[in-house]
Amino acid sequence: MALSSSGLCIKLSLARLCGFRTHRTLAALKSPYVSCQPRLSVCRHYSSSKVRQGLGRYVVSRFQWANDKYQGFLKRRFPRFYLLYHTFWEGVKLLISDAKEVRRIKAKVLSSGIQVKDLPYRDMEKLRQFRRDLIKAIPLVLISIPPFANYLVFVLMYFFPRQLLIPHFWTPKQQVEFRRAYHSLRAQQHWPVLKGLENTSRQIKEGHLQVRLKVLCTKVQNGANPTLSDVLAVRGLFSGPPLGMKRMSVAQMRNLSPLLFLTPRLPGFLVGRRLNSHTLELLQLDRALSRLGPQELNDSELRQACHVRGINSEDLGINHCRDWLSQWLQVSSSLKESEASLLLHCIVLLSANYPRSPSRH
Fold first, then answer.
1. Are residues 304 and 261 in the same domain?
2. CB-based contacts of 74: which residues, under 8 Å, 6+ apart?
3. Is position 60 within any domain?
4. Is the C-alpha dihedral spanning 72, 78, 79, 80 positive or negative?
5. Is residue 182 part of a domain?
């Protein structure tokens, strides 16, 4: 019986995989039948882990080659779209890396039995920032699930990057630009917060504390920077009514919420609860940072820490950022949790008039 060309190819491949000698190969080709035993050994040999790993590496290498070709084509023909494409996938990698890091931190918390507030500063900051980023990223991830929907994501990235994307998907230029934009929105609340603080001072019964609070508000409104003693002199007013965290008016809470990038468009009790939770979290972060020492932060971490606490770090020199953060930590380290409301007001009191540096150094 003559063998077909396809059967011949199959038998040649089987013979090579099994490592048969040349004369055995020829004998097998002359025979119209092949026993079942060689076939079973061939299958076992072909499905071994080494073959599967080699096949996997080959597939990955071919995919990487095709992806590099595609990116090269986009970079040559559509440079703006390539920038969005590259930023998107780099952001995905960063997000996955952060997710792994957060998983490691949570596993450490569960295994060691320590509380989150006792974690090192960088671990606490990673958990805080990842939670905020994840909440904002969920809608974008859901949009990109259907086939070819990632192109819609690119359109959204192009037209609404600040509103819809988290910092993982911003270009370096956008990160600087958007931080300035966010600070500008936050600075619009400085005057309402100061006016609300000034109006609330009329409800204070202790005369000397009332005078000190009015002087503090007037100094900031006139463009001066208060001293640390000016701020700490009124700390007792922020542990109970009318300026304690749970005793403030809803109107003042709504004025304060945008300072932490929280929406004020919620029922009053939810505004107060979220404000209290985020302020205590910030106080715990400050304590962790004091344990680490602000001098241990690199330039990027230092600017991020200042931005979170209310200063426009992108327009300040690095030395100004470090000096301002040291002043903030001096106030923060002096406060109890019951006085956390003062820390929240310090976002305005300490940053509203802080001098800007004409050059970054």
1. yes
2. 81, 82, 85
3. no
4. negative
5. no
Residue 67 lies in a domain: no
Shared-domain flag, residues 197 and 288? yes
Asked if 101 and 191 sit in the same domain, the reply is no
Query: Are 98 and 138 found together in one domain?
Result: yes
Sign of torsion over alpha carbons 341, 343, 346, 348: negative
Question: Can you read off the two tokens belonging to residue 361?
Answer: 């150094």
Chain segment 256-281, per-residue pLDDT in tens? 999 999 999 999 999 999 999 999 99
Give the integer Cα–Cα distance in Å for 157 and 146: 17
Whole-prediction pTM: 0.76
Answer yes or no: is 112 within a domain.
Answer: yes
Per the structure, the count of domains in the chain is 3
Amino acid at 315: D
**Torsions phi, psi for 171 (to 5 deg):** -75, 160
Report pLDDT digits (tens) over 121-174.
999 999 999 999 988 878 777 877 787 777 777 777 778 888 888 898 888 888
The contacts found for 45-50 with CB under 8 angstroms, 24 or more apart, are: 45/17, 45/18, 46/17
144 shares a domain with 94: yes
Tell whether 205 and 326 lie within a shared domain.
yes
- The residue whose two tokens read 């090192």 is 120
Q: Which of 128, 143, 169 marks a domain boundary?
A: 169
Helix and strand totals (H; E) in the chain: 17, 0
What residue numbers bound the domain in which 125 lies? 78-169
Q: Verify that 292 and 208 share a domain, yes or no.
A: yes
Structure token digits, residue 289: 């940072």
Residue 32 — φ and ψ, nearest 5°?
-80, -10
Q: Which of 155, 153, 105, 147 is nearest to 127 (CA)?
A: 105
What's the rounded mean pLDDT across residues 57-74?
72
User: Are 274 and 266 contacting, i.e. CB atoms less than 8 angstroms apart?
Assistant: yes
Positive or negative, the CA dihedral 219, 320, 322, 301 is positive
Rounded to the nearest angstrom, the gap between the alpha carbon of residue 58 and the centroid of all alpha carbons in its chain is 35
Rounded to whole angstroms, how far apart are CA atoms 235 and 244? Answer: 10
